[in-house]
Amino acid sequence: FDVEVAFPVDASGTLVAMQVTLLQKGSACPLSVNINAYKGMAELSAALEAGMTPIVSYWSSNDMLWMDGKGQDGQGPCAVDQASKCGETVKFWGFAVEALEAEGSTEAKAEPVPVTTTTMAITAPPMPV
């Protein structure tokens, strides 16, 4: 899966939403969520402005068919979950941290911020299911 996460801000730099999109190679049907009515948006906006470190988590579960199962159209890749088939390691790559223009801004999209590690391997036993 490809995961896209965005934190769009308004012209004053205040967070207006949290957006997550999951994309699966070969699928023309992304799964997206836009959270724009979170009651702690002002606090989250201040925390993001202060700076954060991205954290990536990897886990397995026997009940993930909602994401990668056959689906209502029967076209998904998996008929059953096989959490035991999840690898002991996983690689994350292609990280890009970029400043995006504020909504309503005429400024062009900023150049990507250099990321010191664009590939990493995480080794951990799968979580119990």
From TrEMBL:
Top-level division of the source organism's lineage: Eukaryota
Molecular function as annotated in GO: hydrolase activity, hydrolyzing O-glycosyl compounds
InterPro entries in the cross-refs: ConA-like_dom_sf, Glyco_hydro_7_sf
GO BP term, pick one: carbohydrate metabolic process
Protein name: Uncharacterized protein
Organism from which the protein derives: Strombidinopsis acuminata
